Each structure stands twice: as structure tokens, then as C-alpha cells.
């Protein structure tokens, strides 16, 4: 009756095909759907339990806004009469999918629960009784009064959502399965369980313990609008949700929702970013995020921040620096949950907490009043005890201890090089003491203490004897994940030259940062760099990255891109490639480590889009090593079933990969000849 095909095990997702066989009038039909199951993507990701987060957020705005109105009970007599009128329609639904198994007419046995949800919507849970009558005859118009009860080894139970109008009642949602009554709630309102927060308002009630796509559903009619069959998307791996289509979500498939927890110090007061509401209470923003890497607080808040910085008379480079500081300081925490009230059969929410602590008003903390964006209005409010409990999400994770230790070592080297008091000055010397305490015993992780980013100024003279002041901020995850934030100041340069110099610096950092201590390299580059004149354009340090034609033929061309990187460590980039490949329907693999290798295959325009997006990210060196193309679609065969992240570490936790295992993997997938294009040498199986 149901067969399951497991396509390929990968680190980010397991892709399944679920083939449901049905028969109508003895003619077999097949329905096939695909869905992706995310498993642990990266070992070093922070995670937090959903139930604990709900408790923390309860006084600060619910994590998920859901209607909680209970229904009005319907009398047993009235409910029985109403359901009896819908039995022919319910039997028609049973026959549509399982006529070969349930040939006999199913009559109403018991109404377990009946409620009026609103003026026109009713919800029922019922059990059915098998009879000796042919279902087709009763559906065709024969009376069911002469049907006798027949014992069944597979008795059915159903939940029904109906619409009542002009005295008639019509089924708009139904879920039937064997012995389903065991999963029905005994003390909960069926209407409350059937409510949905979107415009549809209601969904078919499907008990969570039997919602899996692998559970045998005899009848399943969700509310909502099913996506067109031509739209490619993965079904919700969490199971049937009782509603199809988008629901209240912005797009099909996985939808990221971020809980925005941003704090700043205003004098001695800690303030939290809140939605502005009529009750004047603190409400933590929750936003759907389309680009978690570049806009972790969502498109609306990003627009608000840009408008706010526009009013501060900042230069374009200063504005971008503040935004970059903010986004670099963001700490992400994944929320562990199975399903959410917003989920549908075709779209589902993945929740994260995006936290920032701006105690020195370096970026977002420098904004006192925010403009609005449509109906969204945000502002600062004094953090009460409930809000302060969320500060944990804005503090550095334990995994950054190595980063902070490396920062201390690099600062020690800088102090030995720049010994004059005016050459190297720290904005807050106490930060260094806290940093040392954190590295020694991790006291900064305690809830009653805080740890600020280290910031300092470095005075340099370049070859033209021009005095430059570097303002440096070290993110918590520098140097293993994020680059340092550096801005050049110089009183003897006009704003145009200074902006041009800062553009050059950002391009240099973007192209050369290699997840390693980098401050001395920056200082040396500044000392050796010629200050641009007004008519000189900024130098593009990333111009050596191999370009590809972005003019695909009108006919469909299939490609396989082989990308080589100096290294791939950053978990945000790795997750970003997994998500991007999934969005573009590309298959292939990513091998993190040093060096890093990425292969993607699919439509040429999609491969170009993938390469165009990935090369924008911060890399020490990345290049497109080789392109395979085939214009005849019948000759192009995908060598990979999905896009996966490989793990061929030489030992647990190592950043170095066993390239013998990579070569074997490539040979197994029919692309061993590409090894020499990537590495310039013949491959060899490490097991031989």
C-alpha cells in the first residue's frame, strides 16, 4: 500500500520519496511526493529547547501567535443528525482512495466530540461502523436503512471539519485512519486544535502522534490551497499538518523565523529592542528571514536601520561599517522543535534566536529613535527581569574560547610592537581583564556578568608620512569565523579620499581574511598602500576570481561546476551553500577543511547564480577550476542525488580531510577524472 524510497543520506538533509498507491475502480494510480529531513548540520552550532524558549518569551510576547478560542459544544442529538447527512460524502472520499480495501459502506457509529467553532464552521471526531452494504450502491442513491453491522478488523475513526450553509453541511477537511479514536483528545477543545493563525483560520485536525507521512491515512483532506504541480518544492518532513499551501508563511519549503534579541547599554540602564505596541509592554520581535547571512533581522528591520543611519549624517562607508559591525556581532542559536502552529503540508518554520549586545553604542545602540516600516515600529525599552533572561542569547558561546585566546595572544604581540603610549590605546582596559578571566575560567559565561568585544585604536604612518588612526573591534568569533572590524581615520584627508581608502581596506579584508590572526597584515597593508586621489577608483582586490559568462543560451544547458577554495571552515558559509543549492535545485557536494572543494550540477543559469552568490562571501582565495557543459539534456546525467556536506576528517575534530577518501567518493560517483583538475595531481584511494 505504501512504499518508501530512501534516496541518499547527507549531512544537512535526508531526501525521501513517498509513493502512495491508490486504486479507483480497480485502476491503480501513483502519487509521489518528495520531502527533506534536516538532521544535525554542524556539530558546533548552539541549540536551545523550544519549550524553555516559550517560557522565557511568555511575558515578552508569545513565540508563536495562535488563536486559542474554544468551540461551543453541540448536543449529541444535533451532532448525530448533522454527521449522518455527511456520511455519503465521507464514504465517497474513502472510495476515492481505498475502494479495494473498504468496499462496504461505513455508517456513523459514535460522535465522540462535536463543537461549533464559528457561525459556519463545525468540528467533529467520530467512529465508523462497517456494514454489509456495497458502498457504491449507497453512494449511487440506494437507502442505507437496511444495512446491517459487520465486524471489521480495521475499524475507522475520523476527524471532520465542516461548513454549514442554508441548512446543508459540507465537509471541508477530513482525516480518517484505523483506530484513530485512540489519539483523539479527551479533555481538549477540538475547535481550539483546529484553529490556524492565517487567513484560512481553520485546519483539519490531525493528531500529532499519527501525523507522519508514513502513517496510513485512509482519508486526508486538508484545508488551504494546494500548490500547483508544476511548482517544485519539498513537503513538510514533519508530517501532515491539516492545511496545504502557504498558510501564513512567505514561501514554500523551509522558512526561517528569527527571534530578535538586541540589547544596548544606555548609561547604567540595559535596554532591549522591542515592538512598539498599544499596551507599552516589551514585545520581542519575531521576523521571517529571507537572507539569514546578510539580513539576520529580516528585510523590514534592515530597511529601518538603513533609514535610521541616513538621518545620522553618516557617509556611505560609515553607514555600511555600522551595519557590518552589527551583523558580525550577531550570535545565532538554533531552536530545537518538531513542528510549529504556522506549519503547513508544504511550508514549515525553522526557528533561530539572533542575539546582539551593543554595550558601547557602536552600531545599533547609537540609534535612539527608529523610523517605521509599514506597520512595523520598533524602539528601545528598559529591560526588566524577564527581558534580561534573554541576554544569554547575545553572549558569546563557549566554543569561542579558542577565538578569545588567540585574540589575547595577538594583542600581546601588538603591544610588544607598538610600545609608545599614543600608538596603541584601548577603549576600555577593563575589557582586557574580563577577556583574560574568560579565557582562564570562563567566568564571563555566568548570567550576572557580561563580556564586551575588545576595541582599540592603532596609530600608524604610511610611506607618504601620513598619520592614520585605525579603529579596531574584534568580534567574539574572530579570528576563526569573522574578520576584524577596522575603520581608518585621518584628519588630514578629505572625506572622499578617506571613504575611498576605507573601501580599499574592506576589499582587502574581504579577499585576504583566512580565519587566522590578521591584524599585523592589515597594519602592514595600510603602511604600504598609496592613498587614492580624487580621480582614482578603488582597487578591487577580488578581481582575480575567475569570471564566467552570465549569458546562458536560450536553449537549456546543463553544467557541472568545480570550485576550489583555500579553505572552508565558516559554519555560516557552509549552511548558506546547503540552503542555496537546495533553493536552486542543484546537486553535488561541499568538502569543508583546507583546502575546500565544492561541486554543483544542474541548470547552467542556476550554477551561475550559485557561483555568483558564493563568490561574494569572504574568502582568502576561491576560484572556479573547471566547468562541464552539455546542451543535450538527454546526454546530461546527474552524478549526485542531492547536495551534501562531506566529512572525511583524518581524525575526529580535525580540519584536515582524507583526500584518498574524497578520491574514492568521486570515483564512486563517476567523476574521478576531475580530481586532477581540482588538485593538479592524480588521485589515489587511501584504502589501497
UniProtKB/TrEMBL annotation:
Residues 1-23 form the signal peptide. It comes from the Eukaryota. Residues 430-533 form the RWD domain. This is RWD domain-containing protein 2B. It comes from Trichinella nelsoni. The keyword Signal applies. Pfam families: Prp3_C, RWD. Keywords: Signal.
Amino acid at each position: 500500500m505504501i512504499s518508501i524510497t530512501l534516496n541518499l543520506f547527507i549531512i544537512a538533509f535526508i531526501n525521501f520519496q513517498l509513493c502512495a498507491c491508490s486504486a479507483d475502480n480497480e485502476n491503480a494510480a501513483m502519487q509521489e511526493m518528495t520531502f527533506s529531513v534536516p538532521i544535525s548540520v554542524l556539530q558546533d552550532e548552539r541549540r536551545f529547547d523550544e519549550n524553555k524558549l516559550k517560557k522565557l518569551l511568555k511575558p515578552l510576547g508569545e513565540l508563536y501567535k495562535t488563536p486559542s478560542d474554544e468551540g461551543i459544544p453541540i448536543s449529541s442529538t444535533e451532532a448525530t443528525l448533522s454527521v449522518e447527512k455527511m456520511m455519503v460524502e465521507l464514504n465517497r472520499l474513502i472510495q476515492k482512495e481505498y475502494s479495494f480495501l473498504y468496499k462496504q459502506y461505513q455508517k456513523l457509529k459514535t460522535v465522540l466530540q462535536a463543537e461549533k467553532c464559528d457561525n459556519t464552521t463545525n468540528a467533529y471526531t467520530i467512529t465508523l461502523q462497517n456494514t454489509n452494504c456495497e458502498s457504491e450502491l449507497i453512494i449511487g442513491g440506494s437507502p442505507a436503512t437496511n444495512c446491517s453491522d459487520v465486524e471489521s478488523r480495521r475499524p475507522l475513526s475520523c476527524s471532520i471539519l465542516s461548513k454549514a450553509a442554508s441548512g446543508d453541511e459540507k465537509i471541508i477537511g477530513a482525516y480518517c485512519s484505523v483506530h484513530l479514536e485512540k489519539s483523539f483528545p479527551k479533555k481538549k477543545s477540538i475547535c481550539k486544535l483546529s484553529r490556524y493563525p492565517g487567513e484560512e483560520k481553520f485546519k483539519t485536525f490531525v493528531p500529532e502522534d499519527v501525523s507522519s507521512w508514513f502513517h496510513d491515512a485512509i482519508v486526508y483532506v486538508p484545508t488551504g490551497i494546494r500548490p500547483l504541480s508544476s511548482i517544485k518544492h519539498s513537503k513538510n518532513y514533519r508530517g501532515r499538518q491539516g492545511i496545504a499551501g502557504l498558510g501564513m508563511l512567505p514561501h514554500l519549503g523551509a522558512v526561517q523565523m528569527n527571534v530578535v534579541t538586541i540589547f544596548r547599554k544606555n548609561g547604567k540602564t540595559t535596554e532591549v529592542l522591542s515592538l512598539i505596541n498599544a499596551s507599552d509592554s516589551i514585545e520581542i520581535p519575531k521576523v521571517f528571514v529571507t537572507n539569514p547571512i546578510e539580513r539576520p533581522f529580516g528585510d523590514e528591520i534592515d530597511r529601518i536601520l538603513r533609514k535610521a543611519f541616513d538621518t545620522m549624517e553618516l557617509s556611505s562607508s560609515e553607514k555600511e561599517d555600522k551595519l557590518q559591525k552589527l551583523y558580525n556581532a550577531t550570535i545565532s542559536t538554533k531552536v530545537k522543535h518538531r513542528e510549529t502552529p504556522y506549519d503547513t503540508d508544504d511550508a514549515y518554520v525553522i526557528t533561530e534566536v539572533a542575539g546582539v549586545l551593543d554595550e558601547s553604542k557602536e552600531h545599533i545602540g547609537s540609534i535612539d529613535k527608529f523610523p517605521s516600516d509599514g506597520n512595523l515600529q520598533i524602539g528601545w525599552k528598559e529591560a526588566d527581569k524577564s527581558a534580561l533572561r534573554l541576554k544569554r542569547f547575545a553572549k558569546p558561546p563557549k566554543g569561542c574560547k579558542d577565538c578569545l585566546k588567540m585574540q589575547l595572544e595577538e594583542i600581546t604581540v601588538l603591544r610588544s610592537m607598538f610600545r609608545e603610549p599614543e600608538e596603541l590605546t584601548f577603549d576600555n582596559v577593563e575589557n582586557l581583564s574580563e577577556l583574560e578571566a574568560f579565557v582562564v575560567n570562563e567566568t564571563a559565561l555566568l548570567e550576572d556578568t557580561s563580556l564586551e568585544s575588545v576595541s582599540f585604536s592603532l596609530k600608524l604612518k604610511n610611506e607618504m608620512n601620513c598619520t592614520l588612526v585605525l579603529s579596531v573591534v574584534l568580534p567574539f568569533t574572530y579570528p576563526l569565523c569573522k574578520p576584524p572590524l577596522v575603520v581608518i581615520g585621518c584628519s588630514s584627508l578629505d572625506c572622499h579620499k578617506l571613504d575611498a581608502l576605507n573601501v580599499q581596506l574592506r576589499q582587502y579584508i574581504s579577499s585576504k581574511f583566512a580565519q587566522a590572526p590578521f591584524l599585523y597584515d592589515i597594519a602592514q597593508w595600510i603602511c604600504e598602500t598609496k592613498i587614492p586621489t580624487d580621480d582614482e577608483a578603488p582597487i578591487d582586490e577580488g578581481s582575480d576570481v575567475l569570471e564566467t559568462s552570465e549569458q546562458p543560451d536560450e536553449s537549456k544547458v546543463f553544467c557541472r561546476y568545480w570550485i576550489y577554495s583555500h579553505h572552508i571552515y565558516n559554519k555560516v558559509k557552509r549552511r548558506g551553500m546547503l540552503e542555496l543549492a537546495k533553493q536552486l535545485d542543484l546537486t553535488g557536494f561541499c568538502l569543508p577543511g583546507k583546502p575546500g572543494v565544492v561541486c554543483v550540477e544542474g541548470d547552467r543559469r542556476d550554477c551561475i547564480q550559485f557561483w555568483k552568490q558564493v563568490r561574494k562571501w569572504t574568502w582568502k582565495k576561491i576560484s572556479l577550476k573547471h566547468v562541464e557543459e552539455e546542451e543535450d539534456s538527454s546526454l546530461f546525467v546527474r552524478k549526485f542525488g542531492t547536495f551534501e556536506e562531506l566529512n572525511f576528517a583524518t581524525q575526529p575534530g580535525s580540519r584536515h580531510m582524507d583526500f584518498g577518501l574524497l578520491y574514492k567518493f568521486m570515483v564512486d560517483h563517476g567523476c574521478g577524472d576531475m580530481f586532477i583538475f581540482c588538485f593538479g595531481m592524480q588521485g589515489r584511494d587511501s584504502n589501497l
